[in-house]
Amino acid sequence: MNLDMVLQLIIIIGFLLLGNGIVAVFPIPLPGSVVGMLLLFVVLITGILNVEWIEKVSSFQLKHLTLLFIPPIVSLFLSSGFLEILQWNILIILIVSSICCLLGTALAVEWLEKRRGMK
Amino acid sequence: MTNFIVNIFFCMSITFVCYLISLKLYRKYKKSWLNPLYTASILLILLLLVLPIQGESYREGSFIFNQLLQLAVVSLAVPLYKQWSFLKKNFKKICTGVICGTALGLIAVLGMSQIFHLPEQTRASLIPRSVTLPIALTVSRDLGGLTSTTVIFVIISALISLTIGPKLLKRFGVRSKSAMGLAMGTSAQMLGANRSLVWGEEEGAMGSIAMTTSALFLSVFVPILAYISHL
User: Fold this and answer.
1) pLDDT in tens, B150-175
2) Tell me, what's the pLDDT at B5?
3) Model ipTM?
4) Cα(B79)–Cα(A94) distance, rounded to whole angstroms?
């Protein structure tokens, strides 16, 4: 990791801290990380910050996003309450609602695209 | 104190090692079921069962990954920015898709918890199951759900969507790039957005915007819904 990457990382950390700070002060029902993302986005779109300044670190992070999900999954399976909570009826609800959500989104978008295509 | 630091260092290194091994495996054999997410998790669980470490101390040591995850959420601004003009053009499509998907998922949860006679608290923990984790926690807390339970529901449903999603969409003949990205982002959030980046830039941008919009939609809509149902 060179100096360039460290600087880029510091910028992103700064936006996270800023987001956390804003959420702590104002009654916004969003987590600090999302507020930080929205702020960073605004700064990029208004051209205050050049995208090249943070591109390397952000694409590196998103490429290895999977890594960050491993610890919560592992802790989940190791926790004692896990089997207690996950009964078959809840599992069915989770599966069915996931399918509903996936298909609802995809089919609505396709329907909209087709309708627009016909006009 | 030194114990604590050693613990963090140890947790990080075994997680990294497991991830690198499974990434190597995945790149070598190129099978979709060898996704590092599954193989690394299984590897790590086995390792933790064999090694004389408590699950509790691993959880303590791995908090650092939670911080990194928050940073990754901030980083999502970059793909969003790069695809902005494209997203603006498709504004209506995005809103329709995300609202339909989230609403349908919500109705499914409410209807089925009615059928199974689930207790109020379980239902409250189930409602935010399809939004990104940090937001789900806030919504669940506001509704009177258990946050630790919500974490389980969110991760499990993201894993379900991630596993069946691509095949399900293919089955139903969904071929539109935006439909695929939006569906994965709405249903599996970060994991889905990441998965749709594999399909391509357009799908990836759709995935991350779907994650953000569905989270915004639910965090605004659910408190209103709760308010109405209490009247």
Assistant:
1) 777 888 888 888 888 888 888 888 87
2) 81
3) 0.81
4) 29
Amino acid at A85: I
| Closest residue by Cα to residue B192 from B105, B122, B90, B113 | B105
Output the six-digit token pair for A80.
């004692």
Residue A97 lies in a domain: no
Establish if A63 belongs to a structural domain: yes
Task: Provide the domain limits for residue A59.
Answer: 3-67
Picking from B36, B48, B182, the nearest residue to A66 by CB comes out as B36
- In the chain, the amino acid numbered A14 is G
Q: Is residue A9 part of a domain?
A: yes
Query: Residue A45: its chain B contacts at CB < 8 A?
Result: 81, 84
pLDDT at A21: 92
* pTM check: above 0.80: no
Nearest to B135 among A34, A97, A100 (CB): A34
Residues of A within 8 A of B59 (CB-CB) are 71, 75, 78-79
Chain A CB contacts of B107 below 8 Å: 100
Q: Among A13, A67, A72, whose Cβ lies nearest the Cβ of B71? A: A13
Task: Collapse the DSSP code of B172 into the 3-class scheme (helix H, G, I; strand E, B; otherwise coil) and give the result.
Answer: coil
